[in-house]
Amino acid sequence: MFSFNTYEKWLSLCNHLKLRIENELNGSKSIRETMYIPREKTKNDLRAQNDNVEFSLRKRIYETERIKNELEWQKLNMQIDKDKFLKEIENLEYALDSKLNSKKIAETRCEEKLYRRGAERCIDKPTVELHKEIFQLYNTTQNLADKLNKSKEIYNTLNRQVDLIDEELKNKSHALSVDEKCLQYRSQLINHIL
């Protein structure tokens, strides 16, 4: 019923089993060694890819900050220019008002001379000089009005440019915030993966 093996057969079986186990261990070691190289290569590739992405992100952050600083500098200069043009507009308006008042006075004086009675109604030297003064005042007020309109145009253009720069600064600040968060999240993620 029960069969017994001889010692030699048992020893042969144990040696065979030992040999099979050693072969399996050697095969497992060989598989581990062959898997180690691709695994390390993959890790190195991931590190290199991560370094490239981080470099690109840092470069983009640097460029965005540089552009943002340049925009802030442009905005500051435009604010200074706006203030100058605002003062110039105020000065031109004051000068135009005073010239218009002088012109009105000269025109009133000229009308009074025009409606003189009888022999006093003539074109004498004061009347001619008054007409010249009115003509000069007219040209001066016209030039001042043109300068005022140009200054107002430039001022309005500067206002629009400042608004555009404000919008661009808002966009750059948002992009900068997103890139910095992305870099932060990537570093946390990479620390867990690698």
List the domain count as a whole number: 1
User: In what range is the share of β-strand residues?
Assistant: under 5%
Biggest beta-sheet profile:
none
Q: What's the order of the H and E elements?
A: HH
Q: What low-confidence regions span 5 or more consecutive residues with pLDDT below 50?
A: none
Indicate the radius of gyration in whole angstroms. Answer: 46 Å
- Coarse shape: rod-shaped
CATH architecture identity: Orthogonal Bundle
Question: CATH fold name, please?
Answer: Helix Hairpins
Distance between the termini: 61 Å
How many individual β-strands?
0
- Provide the residue-averaged pLDDT: 88
List the defining traits of the structure above:
Helix Hairpins; mainly alpha; 194 residues
